[in-house]
Specification:
single chain, alpha+beta, Chitinase A, domain 3, 3 domains, disordered C terminus
Length: 490
């Protein structure tokens, strides 16, 4: 087998592989000999089929199997021998001439194919001890815990029937019938419906017109469905509702005690406060970590400058661009509405894609050198999280991850990336700073990718920019051993 490099330009490589016809025929003959004693052909006893006849019957199909195996297995071996890693799956080129293909399958011509790929650039890791970050920490006070408990307790709030007029915060029990142009519409009728006034559960204007009514009252109210109402036959339409008030009930005061905890499925008020405090601290902790990670990525971006594989950048840009256009379409806006142009946005998001790819490769190299591993248990937990997001579709999700090449890597990547960040936090300088929750939750414009924000749709670009402050690594495409940092940490 001959391996000839035909292109070495930057990160781009092209390899021509030639396997002589005699070598292909020798492999084919070896396989035919191996099956000679097992094949069954009418007119011949087992093991007595003349080799020439066997070759005539099965030679071409065996050669086709060889070709398929070679293009499947040899590329990775060739790259390994060359000490190279391909950024994406190498593109394989073979003859499209039918006559030439027939000669190859008949063992009359050398088998040639080409490999086109981009190599992963060599990354010389630098000393991380110079990286310094500020970790913002919020002290959760007792009032915030109790305020959150009161919000949660709304679901367990009790109501007591009252006489007199309904006020904001009261719960009314009503029968109603909705009509458009005097005709009742589907879904516009209910009986014994319970509605807390001021909860904004119903369309704008509905609840306000029930304030002041009392049990036994009947009233016809008029409202207008929002223009973006999901039911197209009602969107923007004026409608009337025949209302019959059956009960008015006042909300009982909520007291944080063991009885409330019991209603929420816990043994005591102390346990309730402990759990709620933990939830609040976890929420703040996620924001804190996001900001710390952003600072790390910003400094790594300054430390490492190298050419990135174009195909990886293309794939990441397409992910970002698809999301941007989806968000614009959903909001009914254009690039002009966001004070930019499509051309300018493309340029800036291309820069963002390059940054993500470069940081992804850096994080991957750091993790690989540090021996960071993702355990089977961590992968299992990640899979279970995916299953919980799609109740009723567990079987389809499992089949997807079992049968889709690269699907497992999409679970592994964000786990690996977070573990690399944990590793870095043990090497860099971290200074804790106490801040208020308002300071923590404020937009960190300094840490965000300012250039991308200038040209991007400002309100709907969040998903494309937000993954750890614009800077998460590629989400989809990544090199075989470099998929480490392809996922977002969120």
């Amino acid at each position: 087998m001959q391996v000839i490099e035909t292109l070495a330009e930057g990160l781009k490589r092209e390899i021509k592989v030639v396997i002589p016809a005699k070598d292909m025929e020798a492999q084919m003959n070896e396989r035919l000999e191996d099956v000679k004693g097992r094949v069954r052909i009418n007119g011949f006893r087992p093991g007595k089929v003349p080799f020439a006849h066997l070759k005539k019957m099965y030679g071409k199909s065996v050669m086709a199997e060889l070709v398929n195996e070679i293009v499947r297995d040899r590329p990775s071996a060739i790259l390994s021998e060359r000490g190279e890693k391909s950024a994406t799956q190498p593109e394989i080129g073979m003859t499209e001439d039918q006559a030439e293909a027939e000669k190859i399958l008949n063992g009359q011509a050398d088998f040639e194919f080409t490999l086109s790929y981009e190599v992963i650039p060599a990354i010389a890791l630098k000393d991380n001890s110079g990286i310094a970050v500020t970790r913002e920490v919020v002290d959760v006070d007792a009032k915030e815990v109790d305020d959150q408990i009161l919000k949660i307790a709304e679901s367990a709030r009790s109501y007591e029937t009252k006489k007199g007029k309904a006020a904001d915060g009261d719960r009314v029990t009503i029968d109603y019938l909705g009509k458009v142009d005097g005709v009742a519409f589907d879904g516009g009728k209910d009986e014994d419906a319970e509605l807390v006034l001021g909860s904004n559960r119903f369309i704008p204007g509905f609840e306000e017109q029930l304030v002041g009514l009392k049990a036994g009252d009947e009233k016809v109210i008029t409202v207008t469905f929002p223009a973006d109402y999901p039911a197209a036959n009602l969107a923007g339409k004026e409608a009337t509702f025949d209302i019959n008030v059956k009960e008015v009930a006042a909300a009982a005061d909520i007291e944080i005690n063991d009885d409330l905890a019991s209603k929420l499925g816990l043994e005591s008020a102390d346990k309730l406060r402990e759990i709620v405090r933990g939830q609040i601290e976890s929420q703040y902790g996620s924001v804190t970590r996001q900001k710390v990670k952003r600072q790390i990525l910003d400094q790594l971006d300054e430390m490492y400058k190298f050419d990135t594989p174009e195909r990886l950048v293309d794939a990441e840009f397409e992910n970002i661009w698809r999301q941007i256009n989806t968000d614009l379409a959903q909001s009914g806006k254009t690039f002009a509405d966001e004070d930019t142009t499509e051309e300018a946005a493309r340029e800036e998001y291309r820069k963002l894609a390059e940054r993500r790819v470069r940081l992804g490769l850096v994080l991957s190299e750091i993790g690989e050198k540090a021996g960071v591993q993702v355990t089977d248990e961590e992968m299992q937990q990640s899979l279970f999280q995916q299953l919980r997001q799609f109740p009723g579709q567990e079987k389809q999700i499992l089949e997807y991850f079992q049968k889709t090449p690269g699907a497992a890597a999409s679970l592994r990547a964000p786990i690996f990336e977070e573990k690399v960040v944990d590793h870095l936090l043990g090497e860099i300088k971290v200074t804790d700073k106490s801040v208020s929750k308002e300071e923590l939750m404020a937009d960190d414009e300094e840490g965000a990718d300012k250039d991308a924000k200038k040209a991007a749709p400002k309100k709907k670009a969040a998903k494309a920019e937000a993954a750890e402050g614009d800077d998460a690594a590629p989400k989809k495409k990544a090199p075989a051993k470099k998929k480490a940092a392809e996922g977002d940490a969120e």
